[in-house]
Amino acid sequence: MLSTYVDLSDTVIFFAIPGSSPTFYVYIVLIADYNYRYGHNLIIVYYLVKAPCYMNDTQFRLRPSSFDTLLDLLSETSDPFHERYGKHLSKAQVDELMRPSNETLQEVKNWLNWHGIADPELSTSLDRSIALTVPVFLAETMLNTTYHVFEHAKSQKKTLRTLEYSLPRHLHSHINLVSPTTYFGTTESMRANSFLQSRASGSNLTGDTTPLIGCVDTVAPTCLKDLYNTANYIPTQISRNGIGIPGFIDQYASFSDLTTFTQDFLAPGHQRNLHCEATVVGIQLTCKLDLFCEHLRAGITGGDDGFESFLDWLDFIATVPDDLLPNTFSTSYGDDEQNVPADFAVELCSGFAELGARGARLMFTSGDTGVAGALCETNDGVFRPAFPARQLPLCGGFSNLFARPSYQEDVVSAFLIADGNNNAGLFNTTGRAYPDVAARGQGFQTILDGLVETIDSTAGSSPTFAGVIALLNDFKLAQDGTTLGFLNPLLYANPTALNDITIGTNAGCGASGFDAGVGWDPVTGLGTPDFVELQAII
């Protein structure tokens, strides 16, 4: 007797013959029902070249069974007015919510089996994704698309991608993302937002940690402690509090430079160890911008394929036990939102939500190039939002992809009313507004290859603010044993706990950009941190 699966809406009939070993499947497609779903309107900076016969590493990221529940719980545990505030989920609880249903796993495997890919050829990650290596021609058949080798016009980097792909209709509710497909992230766009200036002639450091006069042109840790009111706080929860810093595009940690930095910039007794974890052996990261955190943990990932590697990092972090998970993450990488396909961006943000549900806080730089983005190019002449920049200036604005969350509504609406018709038509007035907060981004003193370098970049802003959050987590751990987690609702409910910045602009590429003003604005967000004031609201 045959067991039968019939989906008349898709005109697909599937027969499984039980009792056979191995099981045989007959998959009859009465009408090809590939429904176009995934495409990407890319600014073309690539030349198309002929694609040879490649083997293609492909990953199918599956839809979690209870992601909506996870979002609801994240909202409750992050709402300072909710009874569940601060009651973050454990790794085991998150794993259960993020696990795909048995139906999802079986549907996808059945489809792959039908294309001649046997179960032993499939590898799974946390049972959340399925990875396989297939010839390009088979991937093209499966995804109803055509792959090409694209060559970047400036860097000559070649990458195998497609401009659109499709899935059978009955898999739309089971597969969130197929990767790599339409995302063209490279070292050109997935950039480390930093600029090195040459060491000043004759400048030498000693062990003296006294900040330079005025902290105007250069910034050292002591200056930041004074700026953000952390100088008098002594951490007590060092063993269970730390910052994680993921690294990409083949950047790596320099242990010798870290030693030099702590010797030159930090007082004796304040030196910290660097602990590294690898997702791909041999690829590490730079972490020279750690300023006054407690434990520094480096999350190492491989390759230079932009956010493709970020997905690997998120998979790795999902395996980290609760007692080893950093409470705060700082990321000094970004892209322009227009470069990131919608399905890819949503999948990344799902991973960020998973970390937030576990009580971790993620900080992202917003870039250094103003409202026009990194390349000064858009498809339609409007402002170009950054991704996943939601935290720090100088690039500020409004997302074209994500809607504005409720906790932002009051302050952003007030800004839009005050701003009137300025920049009308150049940005999405209903989009998720950024940045959320600000921090110093100029004159950072770092060590590179044993020498002092000065960095002007939001790559310094993000770890600076993350350092303040780490100290707040230390304070909260000492109080009640919990961490802040996703603290945006708390910050937006208490804007006076930050220093409002009212002068400035984020112009770029000839565009006037936005202006800073009283209250939240797309240049400096809610403002810079005041540690003592923030202590008072937690």
UniProtKB/TrEMBL annotation:
Principal localisation: secreted
Keyword tags: Calcium, Hydrolase, Membrane, Metal-binding, Protease, Serine protease, Transmembrane, Transmembrane helix, Zymogen
Subcellular location: Secreted, Extracellular space
Record-linked InterPro entries: Peptidase_S8/S53_dom_sf, S53_propep, Sedolisin_dom, Tripeptidyl-peptidase_I
Spans through the membrane: 12-32
Superkingdom as given in the UniProt entry: Eukaryota
Cofactor binding remark: Binds 1 Ca(2+) ion per subunit.
Domain Peptidase S53: 218-538
GO BP annotations, alphabetical order: proteolysis
GO CC annotation: extracellular region
Name this protein carries in UniProt: Peptidase S53 domain-containing protein
